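This part of the workshop introduces the protein records we will be handling. To make this concrete, we reproduce a full record directly below:
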Amino acid sequence: MANDFVKSFVQMCNYLQQPCHVARFQNLCGVRGTFPDKSTKPESGQSEPDCPGLRKRVQSSDVSVGNGAAVDATAPQVNGRQGDTTVRPDGSSSSSSAAAAAADDDDVDSDTARAKPLRKNSLTGDVGQEFLIHNKFLFYLFTFGTELGNEMFFIVFFPFLFWNIDALVSRRLIVVWAWNLFVGQSTKDMVRWSRPASPPVVKVEVFYNSEYSMPSTHAMTGTAIPFCLFMLTYGRWEYPFLFGFCVALGWSVLVCVSRVYMGMHSILEVITGFLYSLLILAFFQPLLDKIDTFYMTDHYAPLMIIFSHVSLGLVAFSLDSWSTSRGDTAQALGTGAGAALATHVNYQLGLLLDPPLSSLPLTLPSISIGLVVRSLLRFLIGVAALLVTRMVMKAVTIPFLCRLFGLASDDVRRARQHMKVELPYRYIVYSVVGFSCVSVVPLLFRILNLA
């Protein structure tokens, strides 16, 4: 009985991992692409069978086509409208040039848009290929959804929440974000599955295409953050339970589904990321109050913060070769360390003014022009200060580290592929950014009478 269950579970996982399901979903949402004949079977349109397992990361000399496969960089491996063979995401194909031309005439109309990935591949520099969008609403919706799981969104979201709404909730969310990203990216580097095969999948996004994909860290952060936000604010702020739960669930579902739409993850990887983040959140949620209190009050907190966050970064960087995911992990850990150190400093100096428990639950103030203007000013001035801080620290740190370790500083991308440059660079720059967000910028607001 147990063996039958395990066998059925493995079969289900293999089924959900198949890239053809991603391609069908893209086709349903109006995403089209053409691919060369040799990567597909003429009858089924599907690529060679893909089985989950250990994969080799695609380096800049290869072109990633999904689960471990690579082709000659000169081959016409594209996601856009190119070549004589049209392979639709549902698996059907046409090898004649006349059929391809007819398909072009049929597909390109006033409701169809040609598009390319917004950002080039972070590892290879590949800009991606053109593809056709037949449903512009879903394209913009899922582009927005995938941005809700990107690190850049959280770098903007956390400061806004800290400066304008609730500092306690924001700094606890940063703890969950940093740990969630560390666990997810480290798991990717241990499992080592590559992205869904293309073809049949259309690569709407290529920025992370050369990175490992199991589990989806977008699904993890896009699930952990909204549900943690809901659990931290419900009871602390006055709003209906159903409203908060629906917002958290909608946020999570939008991010998860967007990763399938973008061709970056299989259904299995997204489901795994969703469940994995809930497991991590279930572990950390009861500990957040104790962690926050330790950061504020314990005399040894600064040492523990630095030691723990740097140690986690060393673990993450030792799992595999250089990649964007390692940099993202160090960036999150550095931001978390800086925010935690600033929390300790604020508390010790009496600058941390959380509302007393007697004032709970909190209510949103009535919206007025003055409130909106002050909030916007705090956000714009604060973000500008953080951007200047980041720019200055980056300009100073990278040349200094290159000089320290005897590396050429004229090629920043190549220099940052060295762990001894990338790890301290990320930690130094983003720990200072995190510290500035939590401690320095609020002091600036006081000086400007915007607190």
